[in-house]
Amino acid sequence: MSDKKRNVPVLRFNGFSDAWEQRKLGELGKVTTGKAFSSIDFDEQGEYLVITNKDISTSSRSQNVVTDRINVSDKNIIEKYNLNGENILVTMDGVNLGKTAMYSNENALLAQRVGRIQSTQLEFVYQITSSNNFFMTMRTLSVGNAIKHISLSQISNYSTLVPNNEAEQQKIGELFKHLDNTIALHQRKLDTLKQMKKGFLQQLFPKNGEKVPRMRFTGFQEEWEQRKFGEMVNRLNKTSNSSGLPKVEFEDIISGAGRLNKDISNKFDNRKGVIFHPNNILYGKLRPYLKNWLHPNFKGVALGDFWVFEASDTHPFFIYILIQSENYQKVANDTAGTKMPRSDWKKVSNTNFLIPTEKYEQQKIGSFFKQLDNTITLHQYKLDQLNILKRSCLQNMFI
């Protein structure tokens, strides 16, 4: 008999062998909701945060949010709706219906139409409520025309297979809490790196009206010079239907990451596109998305909404970074009067941009951002692998 038919998961901690049982959420914890606070009582200087559905946008572990505040003196209301301790919050209406979050804050009160689950096995229950199956079930059960909503009884009656032994529930909950915390740590590192890159883009390129950047590599003092973009690059237009070269399409490039979202080394067909060579820059001219890519050793065919640039007397990695800068993006995003939101080559190519006079400084800037992009890509890979590991654990440790 298969494990599924015996109601046991594929992967299990040692020492547990009993079949899992069907249980409702209302049996695993206490399900309640908040109070209908009046918006006219909100006060920016209020002592308590008011946690509403708009504060729950995704499954997460959060401690603080920026939201409405209120002053409350009634001790019974404070005691009943205070969000101290550990809680699972469930969005009961609106666009985020069915989304959940862990939340704990003794200076916050729960508003009406937000479900609250309290349990002695909260970490285990949280994995149930943050699953796609719970989310889709709540969406299916929702009723209403303009605004869909679910009820407390629908949350309480959600049924799933769980271990009968609370010790097994606790072990599973602790494992996923550790996984979630590790994923959150890597996400914070990744977000910090992306913010760091954004900051360097602002500091390593001159501001409007200035001739030198505010941050600079040692040894360079000359003012930057104005150059038309069309003089710094050659826009390639040679088309080919060669089946011997891999094809890159718009959706293959991750927006703003400078990397592909999949292996395209075997993506061959007879469609025509622009041939690109190592160190050529692919720029997705379709607005408002920034999609650009440069690979030092890759040759292929760009299909669709791309400009393919070959650096003329400038360093390719500097051009690659220049098109991510604020000054370039203002020009590229200026699509007023066009039927389709695509960058205007005539406008872009005739625009002057400041660049270092020394090619070595261009190279230093390009190499710096290349290393930063590589670090971002590495952290993104680690985060992706952790999310894959969590999905695998959920599939194999739950029924």
TrEMBL record:
Gene Ontology molecular function, alphabetical: DNA binding; endonuclease activity
InterPro entries: Restrct_endonuc_typeI_TRD (IPR000055), Restrct_endonuc_typeI_TRD_sf (IPR044946), Type-I_RS_S_subunit (IPR052021)
Keyword DNA-binding found: yes
Highest taxon of source: Bacteria
One Pfam family linked to the record: Methylase_S
One of the GO biological process terms: DNA restriction-modification system
Keywords, alphabetical: DNA-binding, Endonuclease, Hydrolase, Nuclease, Restriction system
Type I restriction modification DNA specificity domain segment(s): 19-195, 222-386
DNA-binding keyword on record: yes
PANTHER family: TYPE I RESTRICTION ENZYME MJAVIII SPECIFICITY SUBUNIT (PTHR30408:SF12), TYPE-1 RESTRICTION ENZYME ECOKI SPECIFICITY PROTEIN (PTHR30408)
Family: Belongs to the type-I restriction system S methylase family.
Name the UniProt record assigns to this protein: Restriction endonuclease subunit S
Source organism of this protein record: Listeria booriae
